[in-house]
Design goal:
Elements: H1 2-22, H2 29-49, H3 55-77, H4 84-100
Helix pairs in contact: 1-2, 1-3, 3-4
């Protein structure tokens, strides 16, 4: 159950990073509220999972999902640059998370 919590927390991290961008420096109310909700859920689930999982592993999974997921969202929805180097970096992040487990 702790693994489901930390994976969900990582997905919520992608949500709060996306809402942070959409909030336009917290000048737009709904994305700002979305940021608070996603961030609260993400941090709560991460904190809960740390009762069971080693901190290094849980944190790496959380940030790995967040970093890779946010980069992918950026490329798909925000026209961030797409290159072989960026795709390779995302693959390396995912490989690192898998190897930590």
């Amino acid at each position: 159950m702790a693994w489901i919590a930390v994976i969900t927390a990582g997905v919520l991290e992608v949500g709060f990073a996306t809402m942070l961008k959409l909030s336009n420096n917290f000048t737009k109310i709904w994305p700002s509220i979305g940021f608070l909700l996603f961030a609260s859920g993400s941090f709560s689930l991460l904190a809960w999972s740390l009762k069971v999982l080693p901190i290094g592993t849980a944190y790496a999974v959380w940030t790995g999902i967040g970093a890779a997921g946010t980069a992918i969202v950026g490329m798909i929805f925000f026209k961030d640059p797409v290159s072989v180097a960026r795709i390779s970096a995302i693959a390396i992040i995912i490989a690192g998370v898998i190897l930590l487990n």
